[in-house]
């Protein structure tokens, strides 16, 4: 796999409202945030605090009402359709429920995002390399239902890496997994970051996961309420202590 350079993300005054009947709900409320290239950031906060909405805005799945998002010097909040579609292909997205296509093999699930593009043989080669990288070499022809939850999430991660993203957005990627499997998925993400330098923004409710990230950003009612640097020279092995200090 080729090495990529992690993206830098700059968010300024980002706001997203939803209309529910006569009410207006501000899901993301004037958030400003700068994410360094190659960092792994945990996005935490109670249910409904705006984590998924923020990830959807950064991934350009949803549109902001106001504010800007700039990824690697491109203001994505100002992009039009074609450029936006191109940007979306360059961002990796991993979801809590994997979202694999049940009728496709593991290999075809990984290839699926780039199917409209030419070069099928190249795609298959790359997908095989990615499946190897996530520890699923040899399982290419399996169907998703034949895999465990952790294995399905590995397929989803391989799929997210197909476009060699500089930015990986993960919405509670370990939310459906037991703690051992969750830790393994995080090992995998941290290892991918080491090898490819990508930037990872990961929404999570789990202390043990957040504690292993470089930085913790907490949302409350759509606003940024806490921003902690977790790379402050502490023994990185001492994650339990660190986790205990994090009120997730
Ligand atoms: N499409 C939508 N229409 C209306 N309201 C929405 C929509 N999407 C999200 N919301 C509301 O916006 C707020 C933020 O939701 P969001 O899904 O971003 O929270 P979250 O932090 O990801 O929560 P969870 O931890 O439960 O996943 C919530 O109050 C939610 O009900
Ligand atoms: Mg959510």
From TrEMBL:
SUPFAM superfamilies named among the record's database cross-references: P-loop containing nucleoside triphosphate hydrolases
Pfam families to which the protein is assigned, alphabetical: ABC_tran
Source domain of life: Bacteria
Limits of the ABC transporter domain: 9-246
Keywords: ATP-binding, Nucleotide-binding, Transport
Assigned GO CC terms: membrane protein complex; plasma membrane
PROSITE patterns: ABC_TRANSPORTER_1, ABC_TRANSPORTER_2
CDD domains attached to this UniProt entry: ABC_MJ0796_LolCDE_FtsE
GO MF annotation list: ATP binding; ATP hydrolysis activity; transmembrane transporter activity
Protein name: Putative ABC transport system ATP-binding protein
């Amino acid at each position: 796999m080729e090495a990529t350079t992690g993206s830098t993300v700059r968010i300024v005054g980002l706001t997203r409202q939803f209309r529910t009947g006569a009410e207006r709900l501000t899901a993301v409320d004037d958030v400003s945030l700068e994410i360094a290239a190659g960092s792994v950031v945990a996005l935490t906060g109670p249910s409904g605090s705006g984590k998924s909405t923020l990830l959807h805005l950064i991934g350009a799945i949803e549109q902001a009402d106001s504010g800007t998002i700039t990824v690697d010097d491109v203001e994505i909040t100002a992009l039009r359709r074609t450029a936006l579609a191109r940007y979306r292909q360059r961002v990796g997205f991993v979801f809590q429920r994997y979202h694999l296509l049940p009728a496709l093999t593991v290999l075809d699930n990984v290839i699926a995002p780039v199917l409209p593009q030419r070069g099928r043989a190249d795609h298959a080669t790359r997908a095989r390399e990615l499946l190897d990288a996530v520890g699923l070499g040899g399982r290419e022809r399996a169907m998703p239902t034949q895999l465990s939850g952790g294995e399905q999430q590995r397929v989803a991660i391989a799929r997210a890496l197909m476009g060699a993203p500089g930015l990986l957005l993960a919405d509670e990627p370990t939310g459906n997994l037991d703690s051992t499997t969750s830790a393994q998925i995080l090992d995998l993400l941290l290892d991918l970051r080491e090898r490819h330098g990508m930037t990872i923004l990961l929404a999570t409710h789990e202390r043990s996961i957040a504690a292993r990230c470089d930085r913790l950003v907490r949302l409350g009612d759509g606003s940024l309420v806490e921003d902690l640097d977790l790379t402050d020279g502490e023994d990185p092995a001492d994650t339990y202590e660190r986790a205990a200090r994090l009120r997730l």
